[in-house]
Specification:
By secondary structure, this protein is α/β, with parallel strands linked by helices. It has 14 helices and 7 strands.
Length: 327
């Protein structure tokens, strides 16, 4: 693979080159990882764009994330923006496979020339995103997209990794999803910049309005964050089906992003995220060594002793760490 040509293609807004580049960075092969690192370095050295707005989008299964993204993405394209969607699909714990069906749900958006949709398997990575999603974001920025939407798998209250790779973090909730107490629970609620109560249409409109009011009240009880202007985080109602409330939500996102840029939080946040992912890569690299010799054999031998009751799990772990991972 010609990495120079691939990097040049991505920087020249070649869609095929972008797709090949993301496939390369998602590969787990050692030789592919070396090429992926080289690709990212070349793209960065040649002035890969950093001006895209990264928006993380999370929510429980069935809340309407894909429907929202299609309606929201179509609205942005009508305004002349280029939109990339990185959709993370859950992988089977039994077979390891993924359906990768999110693109099928976004029928209109997938036909737009200024849109790019890429489903990826989560594999064994926790937190609602794939391990290489952040690198895919970097390639999409270099390609020239204005807005990059990262759709997580359906997640719970403690899965907040997507907030470490986005400028704005949106949380989609369904009507009647909880009361004020649910809103003040620590975890994903306190990470959100904007809470969107979806499905505010038809018979659920009144319920969505009440739910939004509940969460708006709960947000006022949370400790104020330094990266938020007055009034944020906030809760809004939207209807992805009827496309109501999308323009207001976009206005609020732009206002928040502009304020963070003007007050120095934008650059500091991205710098903190870069450090987070460096440390994450180090941890992942250390864990990957456990699957290779001689550590793999040592682990299996100690595992056998634990299974036979000859050693406790804590004692075996301590012996392994003292023997093989001494500094």
């Amino acid at each position: 693979m010609d990495i120079d040509a691939l990097a040049s293609g991505i920087l020249a807004s070649d869609r095929r080159a972008l797709a090949r580049g993301i496939t390369l960075v998602e590969s787990g092969r050692d030789d592919h990882r070396q090429m992926a690192t080289e690709l990212l370095e070349k793209v960065n050295a040649q002035g890969g764009g950093k001006s895209a707005l990264r928006i993380g989008l999370s929510g429980t299964p069935g809340v309407g994330k894909s429907t929202f993204i299609e309606s929201f993405g179509m609205m942005l394209i009508e305004q002349g923006l280029k939109v990339a969607v990185l959709a993370v699909d859950p992988s089977s714990a039994r077979s390891g496979g993924s359906i990768l069906g999110d693109k099928t749900r976004m029928d209109r958006l997938s036909r737009e020339k200024n849109a790019f949709i890429r489903p990826s398997p989560s594999q064994s990575h926790l937190g609602g995103v794939a391990r290489r999603t952040r690198e895919a974001i970097g390639l999409c920025e270099a390609w020239g997209f204005d807005v990059i939407l990262v759709e997580t798998v359906g997640v719970g209250q403690s899965e907040t990794v997507v907030a470490e790779m986005s400028d704005l973090f949106l949380l989609l909730l369904a009507p009647a999803g909880g009361d004020e107490l649910q809103g003040v629970k620590r975890g994903i609620m306190e990470m959100a910049d904007i809470i969107l109560v979806n499905k505010a249409d038809g018979d659920l409109k009144a319920t969505a309005t009440r739910t939004c009011a509940d969460y708006a009240g709960a947000l006022r009880l949370l400790r104020k964050r330094p990266q938020d202007p007055q009034g944020f985080p906030k809760a809004l109602t939207v209807s992805a089906l009827e496309e109501n409330g999308l323009a207001q939500a976009w206005d609020e996102m732009q206002a928040l992003a502009d304020w963070r840029r003007e007050n120095g939080h934008w650059d500091s946040r991205r710098a903190a995220q870069a450090r987070y992912w460096f440390e994450s890569e180090v941890r992942e690299g250390l864990l990957s060594r456990l699957s290779k010799e001689p550590l793999k054999g040592a682990m299996q031998a100690l595992s056998h002793d634990v299974e036979q009751g000859e050693l406790t799990a804590a004692a075996a772990a301590d012996r392994f760490l003292r023997t093989y991972l001494q500094s």
